[in-house]
Amino acid sequence: MKGTRTLLSLAVGLAFASPSVYAADFVCPSDQAQLTPIPTLQGTGSASALATTSTSTGAVSPDSFRVKGVVTTVGQSLTKGFYLTDPVGDGDPATSDGIFVYLSDKDFATKYKDIKPGAELCLEAQVEEFLGGTQLKLKWDGTEPRLKVLGQGKNVPVSVLKVNDDESLKQALNRHEGMRVRLDSSSDLHLTRNFSFDYKASRTNLELSHKAPLIKPTQLHVASSPEAVALAAKNGNNRLAVESDFKVQNGALPWFPALDADQGYLRIGDQIDGLEGTVIYNKDAFRLMVPNDVTIGVANLLRTAQDDRQLTAPTRTPGSNLRIASFNVLNYFTSAPEIGGDLNNTCQGTYKDSCNRGAKTLLAFEKQRTKIANAITEMDADLLGLMEMENNGFGDNSALHNLVTRLNEQQKDTSKHYAYVRLPVTALTDGKFFGGDAIMVAMIYRPALITPSGDASVIKLPEQRYITGGAAKTAGQRDSLVQTFTIAKSKEPLTVVVNHLKSKGSGCYENGDGKTEPADLQGKCTEFRVSAAKVLGEAVSKLPGQVLLVGDFNSYAKEDPIRVLTDYNPATSERKIVSASHTFIGEQPYEQMGREATKNYGFVDLNVKFNKEKAISYSYDGELGTLDYALANSALASKVAGVSDWHINAFESNQFEYAAKFTDALLKSDNPFSASDHDPIIVDLKLESDATKPDTSSGGGALGLGLLALLPLAWRRRR
Q1: Angle at CA 28, nearest 5°, toward 26 and 29?
Q2: What angle do CA 645, 482, 644 make, to 5 degrees?
Q3: Which CATH architecture has domain 4-160?
């Protein structure tokens, strides 16, 4: 494909060098007919038609070809070699004008100094399909490659990357494979996975998608439905990783040196205007390899005001008189020796790092606590459900007490001070712990506004006990916390239930080997979460009056557990929802064999009701969705005035989290952004003083999504 010719800065002013020959017997043909154009080698398919002999890593051509082109990029780490482009091309947009030339040599930088961008080369090589990527495999004369440098200072062709209406991003990348490209607004590529450590490739990078960030298929469609399967396939063809091909300091983004927690941040949804790189296929993915001479700044980020940071939490809905929120605080632990908190349930009386999922040093903990406390203070919730608090009791040396103390210290208005819900000793494990996990759910509230009515209670969720391979195994779940409150503005009591269902990445009976992801796209242990949803639904349905369930349900909006709690209809659903086998509640057997769910429990998903497809609280592997919910019974649903997610975490880079790996000296900040990995969900209630009087409020959509305040953040940056 013909590229738009531009002069790289490093090529300007270079004089033509005398030819360099690495294999003395190699002669570059003067007759163009004896040269094979790069587009001919690439072809129009996903693989070269010339590579016909199978190998352990793909295929190779039986014949070799003589090729001429201009070097656009040199690979230094991810790829070993250089990229060659036909400066004229064949005029066919379906074929790539560029290709990778494999040349692995530890002395590349010194031995092949003249192989650099702008160099014109002639070489002899076979065409090879290597692990999905098309490349040239050089022919060698003994220890020297059959290669000749013809000159320097050539124009390096750069094409604007555009995706045609009738193709996927993957198809567009395939026809640009090996070519140097530039992104601009017409590319319509958006950040879909923020700057983070990519465990699949063991590299720090980010990911782009065409037209919009990717949505988790089961956020929008029922698991295993044709629509969910189709969206999963579409998402798989709509990813482009962006990274540097040389070793950089952990936490650094070489092509974006402005990276900063307060001003130079990246958000999911951003477009990146003016970034240049070479399209490669490596480690099972298309990647834009950005050379070390390319940098962009904040001015190159294209972002709408709606997609930018909400510097303040959503304002209270007019007419509302009580705000309830839910927040996963990402392992708020105080048990490390430097911090001095009590040990959690799993430490068994002796501290070790393995029983501490949170901060291991006082410095890291102070950063975490500051960000979490600033976020909660800004939310201004009257009652807040918390997940991932350390399960180290309710005493003065507990994580829960530590957090509430900090919140109250930074709030001068005593009417806004918090207290925390305590369980009676009889409901605690060993008279101290809430259940058996290292983390627990918790609830804090403002005594000036609401008053607990009676003791808090526990809904015990199922656990599994089973034998596999002759070994006895167990799988647990975190129990739910229940507290009823009396409220000055309402004659009717309000009961809040805080939940944190089984993780999608943990083990249980239905997982088998515990490594393979289920084909239904719901993650691991779905049946076990269904069991929890059934037990939870039965228990909560019996509670009188106004009831609200909040928390991290580890289920996207159209997945089985949420459907059981909300709107699943077994009579009309093609997919039958099934619970887990070998389950117990305490010592009592629950279901030895999984059963089909026969009903739903009628709770209203408030976030989806108010915000529809904008109900987002989490990002995983480049796909957005919601794991965090506020589910109301019918008695409460009509009293809801507004619901919003405050997007302080899901759209941000986790490199700015207090304890993110591979960040080294990257500056952190006290601001609430990247305080956790989940966005808080906020519910504003309009409770009538006369509980018999119906509330006809219809709500109004997401709060806080108006114009972005243009003032800089007032938070302090910290190392």
Answers
A1: 130
A2: 10
A3: Beta Barrel (2.40)
